[in-house]
Specification:
This protein is of the alpha/beta class. The chain has two domains: 131 residues, NAD(P)-binding Rossmann-like Domain (Rossmann fold, 3-Layer(aba) Sandwich), CATH 3.40.50; 109 residues, UDP-galactose 4-epimerase, domain 1, CATH 3.90.25. The chain is 44% helix and 15% strand. It has twelve helices and nine strands. The strands form two sheets. A seven-stranded parallel sheet has the order 3-2-1-4-5-6-8, with helices on both faces. A two-stranded parallel ribbon has the order 7-9. Helix 3 packs parallel to helix 4. The chain starts with a strand and ends with a helix. This is NmrA family transcriptional regulator.
Amino acid sequence: MKIGIAGATGQLGSLVLEQLKSRTEAGNLVALVRSPEKVEGIEARAFDYEKPETLAAALEGIETLLLISGNEIGKRASQHENVIKAAQKAGIQWIVYTSILKADTTTISLGGEHLITEKLLKESGIEHTILRNGWYTENYTGSIQGALQAGAFVGSAGEGKIASAARKDFAEAAAVVLTDTKHKGKVYELAGDEAYTLYELAAEISKQSGKTIPYQNLPEQEYSKILKGIGIPDVFADGLASWDVSASRGDLYDDSHTLSSLIGHSTTSLESAVKTALN
């Protein structure tokens, strides 16, 4: 059974690929990427969500497709529709899609495009599984070095609990699902075992770095202005600030432990994630 991984050279896709290599033969894997020449060790095919006329041919002979959501905000629903239509033409039997935690209720602005994609999958007639991924811990630990330089960790999440997990945890879950058909038809809400506030994250950074790094909770517009001031594009800066506000409402919290159940072990701890970011 050939498994196609769309976006196999991306941050998540590359980790899924590594996990799959330990679960199935390399000959069963196909990397579907914009630049096939960058892939070594397995078959790679050119695959661009924005080029619908090329997608069906690239999917020929593939039974199972991992559709990793695109990273262009505002374009993803149409891009995913291109892939789903191509999958219908190519005879794909099963699509596994990376959605967002609580896609049907979240106030996070990203939720809309994910929900549209979930609807398209339901209407496609193709068997599918929805992986509603929570936040990657790296979304926050990526800011640690900047916080150390600035002397504070800033955000707009207030006392909101964030049940994030490391990207590698979500990648492992995808690989587990892709290699066992018992997961067909399921919708999984995936989040970390450990939930924390940004106050607690700042305390952990302080503990491990030996520096006092307080968390400063800011109004959404003020946080967005700071992000723009350090060079983050306006649309993305506004998004980051609004997503923090959604986190303050509990949209990034889940205590079902479904992710750790899928992968068979605890998700990466906040302590470990901070340690990795500091080293």
